[in-house]
Amino acid sequence: MLPECAVLFVFLFSAVLFDLKERRIPNRLCLWGIFAGMGLRTILRGLPGFLSGAAGIVAAVLLLFVLFRRGMLGAGDIKLFAVIGSFMGPGFLVRHIPVSFAAGAVMSVVVLAANHNIRERFLRLAGYLRSGDRGRYYEGREDAYRSAIHFSVPMMLAFLFLMSLREWGD
Questions:
Q1: DSSP code string of the chain
Q2: Which residues contact 81 (CB under 8 A, 6 or more apart)?
Q3: How do the domains of the chain map onto residue ranges?
Q4: Share of the chain above pLDDT 70, in %
Q5: How many CB atoms lie within 10 A of CB 65?
Q6: Which of 77, 107, 130, 137 pairs with 48 at a CA distance of 20 to 30 A?
Q7: Residues near 154 by Cβ (< 8 Å), separated by ≥ 6?
Q8: For the segment 105-141, what is each residue's pLDDT rounded down to a tens digit?
Q9: Could you give phi then psi for residue 166, rounded to 5 degrees?
Q10: Mean pLDDT computed over 96-104
Q11: Is residue 144 over pLDDT 60?
Q12: Structure pTM?
């Protein structure tokens, strides 16, 4: 798993840099990440590696698409989860997603506290949940992205945390 982890880290770190600088993760980076993940898995594990990587990509899209449709995750975030799935497989991905969300929640609280708008955002969330609205929860442009986080950061931190626990992929 070490070669896959090292190459994936390079892609995650690059995604974080792009996200912090441009508030987006380039399609080209994600596409090359998926090709690299699938290629490495196939070279190192043969057909089972290829199938596991493909399942990781599909799992990312299926598990997270609703959050994208509601404006809770960006398309780049989903594509980056697909990159992770291509390198590590669906088993790792289902462990990685909740750790990423936990890290993102902590990061969000810090951002909201720094912006002095925790109460405002929680009231908005409560209203959204009460209303049963199925539209988008958050449009970053409405507050100049003041309440948004760069989700690639908690994704990378979750990856590093799971690697420190030796939580390898499938």
A1: -HHHHHHHHHHHHHHHHHHHHHSS--HHHHHHHHHHHHHHHHHHHHHHHHHHHHHHHHHHHHHHHHHHHTTSS-HHHHHHHHHHHHHHHHHHHHHHHHHHHHHHHHHHHHHHHHTT-HHHHHHHHHHHHHHT--S-S--GGGGTTTT---THHHHHHHHHHHHHTT----
A2: 60, 64, 93, 96, 97, 100, 155
A3: 2-164
A4: 88
A5: 12
A6: 77
A7: 100, 101, 103, 104, 106, 107
A8: 999 889 888 888 778 878 877 877 787 766 665 565 6
A9: 60, 40
A10: 97
A11: no
A12: 0.86
pLDDT, position 7: 96
At 134, list the tokens.
């199925």
- Judge contact between 52 and 118, C-beta under 8 A: no
Distance between CA 152 and CA 137 in Å, rounded? Answer: 19
> What is the phi-psi region of residue 115: left when phi exceeds 0, alpha when psi lies from -120 to 50, beta otherwise?
alpha
Residues contacting residue 49 through CB under 8 Å, at least 6 positions apart: 41, 42, 43
- The tens digit of pLDDT for each residue in 118-128 reads 788 788 778 77
Say if CB 93 and CB 56 are below 8 A apart.
Answer: yes
Tokens matching residue 160: 């590093």
